[in-house]
Specification:
Pyruvate synthase, Rossmann fold, 769 residues, seven-stranded mixed sheet, 26 helices, thiamine pyrophosphate binding, eight-stranded mixed sheet, alpha/beta
């Protein structure tokens, strides 16, 4: 079809170019043109791509932004705060529970008045877990003291990111600014977008660095400052007042910046986006991506003679109270559509704030209907827009609002469709076979384990049913089931967020045949600790007698996909408290569940979506995290490593782990598993690749029992040790490392593998090391 170029291209005074990109790509594109100093980040869908795109551009030398992968969102917020105090420009992106995890840091940054820009790619807040777009995370941001500007499409994402840094650094504002867009709608939607053609024009618009404007800078040795002091009551309220003044200043400053931007680019972003509101009698207030759809509905209603209009804010902090009241002065009925609920408040946050605006400006006549819609990424179509207007029109016809608050688009529960159990509980007798025996050597205090030939264990039922949604060749479930073959009796499992969790629990189905709990990346160990201690206390009080338990549960936490980065703190806490449980890490060397970003378990030089390979970068820049050794330092009774390539060894260690977890305290195990999709390897080669990782001593097999290290498989003694390069060439993500141009990185990686192996051998030879 033909294109009306005047409608597609905005005219301005600056040279522009047209691209075809998504919202996430445009956030990254704006950041690379601004050329921020620092981005501290942690992957979470759907915002993860922002860091990925920046890293890809970094690998090809398109910008100088230093990308710092944090151990979690709380850490990423701390990185950004520290960097902002040091006088440069700072950028970040997050979503949903990731934002909630960093939220403690948000008022610190605004309360001490250090500018930065955070892209919130809006997504449902768990639980239950949902990764699709709504505004439940955005509504948590309303009271953090950050100006919040809104983006209805990828063009707005680009433009608002350019304007956001200028707003944040304005002397009348000097606050961190949030740019909010809709996850999986705007973030992944491809659209034509106009951009500045030249970086110099972006810099000319944005202006000088804050330090040159006299703003605080901890690196200015001639002007030492104290950041974030303890304040008593009189000083603290004054500080908050000054922050409040700065927030309200942000509205007029944004209006000034948007006028400048209009002149440069031809694109206009007023505080309030009004559509056919000049004589509207019924209207809908709605935000971001849905606000474009509602305009078509307005046009359709106008064709029927209905005086309809819509309004959508481009800024919600500060809330454009006066502008909204003015826009609605002639409206008789209004539906406020909230893409999140403020549970118990009879309306979402926008409903309450719109009502407050009307009340403040003496409008008590308008009938306001509140509807919560689109939760969990539920699509918003034109017919939903008609329904929103229908609620307002019904009120007009009745002369009052019949149902002031309700949800739109939900399905009422049907008692006749109650879910029924598909699989019967596994029989204890099938789980407790007696084929595995564990005895304690009274002289040494160590355990002796006898296991039958592995074929004898195949009759034990699988604890995870077939039919899950894992990728072909995924090593998680072969590794987990092999480990579970060594566990006798009943288990209660907790899974961190990750591939193993996501692919086994798509509601209303579950692949778990034993009791299963989910908690987020960071807090699984603490959660299972609570379950463990409740079990023992209820058992002590005799409250579990009716359950006819034939044996004690074995409690197992499964973590992976980088879960021992963000989850390491609670895991160490559980270890120090020595709860009777097992933490089992499946190590696939990255955040595979969010798209193969680097984690601290990613080895040096390996390619991921945030450690790309190019002429300016050769994969991950630092060495991998040795979680087994870290946990061993907590002096827990048993630590082990294992692999499916050595099945007898893993089953034996599982039996030991169960004994210690039931009788002594916490156990930590780490198994290396393949991820063919993101390792860029053949599905059928999983066991071969894992075997090569063991044979080259990158992933040695050992256990640490009561502080004594034993190497359980030594490839040198077997005459089977192979060069590290033999392992690396089996995977597409690492083949570049054996090329001459990456020789320095390869040498550093080989040296680190050897250093860790030699140190492990020394520990195995001297029990007190």
């Amino acid at each position: 079809m033909s294109i009306e170029i005047k409608k597609e291209v905005s005219l301005g005074t600056v040279e522009q170019r047209m691209v075809y990109e998504s919202g996430n790509e445009m956030a990254a594109y704006a950041a690379h043109q601004i050329n921020y100093h620092i981005m501290g980040y942690f992957p979470i869908s759907p915002s993860t791509e922002v860091a990925q795109f920046l890293d890809l551009m970094k690998a090809s030398g398109q910008h100088d932004v230093v990308l710092i992968p944090a151990d979690g969102e709380h850490g990423s917020a701390g990185i950004c705060y520290g960097a902002s105090t040091a006088g440069g420009r700072v950028f970040n992106a997050t979503s949903a529970n990731g934002y909630l995890y960093m939220i403690e840091q948000m008022p610190v940054q605004s309360g001490t008045r250090f500018p930065m820009v955070l892209n919130l790619v809006c997504r449902s807040v768990s639980g239950p877990l949902n990764i699709h777009g709504d505004h439940s995370d955005l509504y948590y941001a309303l009271n953090t003291g950050w100006p919040i500007i809104m983006c209805r499409d990828p063009q707005a994402v680009y433009d608002m990111n350019i304007m956001a840094i200028k707003l944040a650094e304005d002397p009348e504002v000097r606050l961190p600014v949030m740019v909010a867009s809709d996850g999986y709608f705007t973030s992944h939607q491809k659209r034509r977008v106009q951009t500045f053609a030249h970086r110099k024009d972006v810099h000319a618009f944005v202006g000088e660095l804050p330090a040159k404007l006299g703003q605080p800078d901890v690196l200015d040795r001639n002007n030492p400052i104290t950041v974030g002091p303890y304040m008593n009551e009189p000083d603290y309220i004054n500080n908050c007042y000054q922050q409040s003044v700065a927030m309200y200043n942000a509205e007029k400053v944004f209006e000034r910046i948007s006028r400048e931007y209009l002149e440069l680019t031809g694109r206009d972003y007023p505080i309030l986006d009004l559509y056919r509101m000049e004589d509207a009698e019924v209207a809908v207030f709605i935000m971001n991506s849905s606000s474009e759809i509602i305009k078509d509905v307005v046009d359709q209603l106008r064709e029927k003679g209905i005086k309809a209009g819509s309004l959508a804010p481009n800024m919600i902090r500060p809330f454009p109270q006066k502008a909204i009241a003015e826009a609605l002065k002639n409206v008789k009925a209004l539906t406020v559509a909230d893409r999140a609920d403020s549970y118990g408040a009879y309306g979402g946050n926008m409903t309450q704030e719109v009502k407050a605006a009307l009340f403040t400006y003496n409008n008590s006549e308008i009938m306001v209907v509140s509807r919560v819609y689109g939760l969990g990424g539920k699509d918003f179509y034109a017919e939903d827009g008609h329904a929103m207007f229908g609620y307002a029109l019904d009120s007009l016809a009745l002369g009052h609002v019949a149902v002031p608050f309700d949800y739109h688009g939900h399905t009422a529960g049907d008692p006749n469709k109650k879910m029924e159990r598909v699989l019967n509980p596994m029989k204890f007798e099938d789980l407790k076979t007696g084929l595995i025996t564990v005895t304690k050597n009274e002289e040494t205090g160590m355990l002796n384990v006898k296991i039958p030939p592995l074929r004898a264990l195949t009759k034990k039922p699988k604890r995870i049913a077939p039919g899950h949604g894992a990728c072909p060749g995924c090593g998680i479930f072969s590794g987990l089931e092999l480990f579970f073959k060594g566990i006798e009796g009943d288990i209660v499992s907790l899974f961190h967020t990750g591939c193993a969790m996501v692919v086994t629990t798509g509601y209303p189905y579950s692949s778990h045949k034993a009791t299963y709990i989910h908690n987020l990346f960071n807090n699984g160990a603490a959660t299972l600790s609570g379950v463990v201690e409740m079990f023992w206390e209820r058992k002590r009080r005799g409250e579990l007698d009716e359950y006819n338990l034939k044996d004690d549960f074995t409690f197992v936490m499964i973590t992976g996909d980088g879960g021992m980065d963000i989850g390491m703190g609670p895991a160490i806490g559980a270890a120090l408290r020595n709860h009777k449980m097992i933490i089992l890490e499946y190590d696939n060397e990255g955040y595979m569940n969010t798209g193969a970003q680097q984690s601290y378990s990613t080895p040096m030089g390996h390619r991921t979506s945030t450690s790309n390979v190019g002429k300016h970068q050769g994969g991950k820049l630092f060495h991998h995290k040795d979680t087994a050794q870290i946990m061993a330092a907590t002096n827990i009774p048993y630590v082990f490593t294992g692999s499916e390539a050595h099945p007898t060894d893993l089953v034996r260690k599982a039996a030991k782990a169960q004994w210690y977890a039931q009788n002594v305290g916490l156990v930590y195990g780490k198994i290396l598993i393949t991820c063919p999709l993101n390792w860029l390897s053949e599905e059928k080669e999983g066991s071969t690749i894992i075997s090569a990782a063991v044979e080259c001593c990158f992933f040695p097999l050992y256990d640490i029992e009561q502080g004594v290290t034993t190497i359980t498989y030594n490839p040198e003694d077997k005459g089977k040790r192979v060069p590290v390069a033999d392992w690396l060439k089996t995977m597409g993500k690492t083949r570049h490392m054996i090329k001459p141009e990456y020789a320095e990185s390869m040498k550093m990686f080989e040296d680190e593998v050897e250093r860790r192996w030699v140190r492990l051998k020394a520990k195995s030879e001297h029990e007190f090391l």
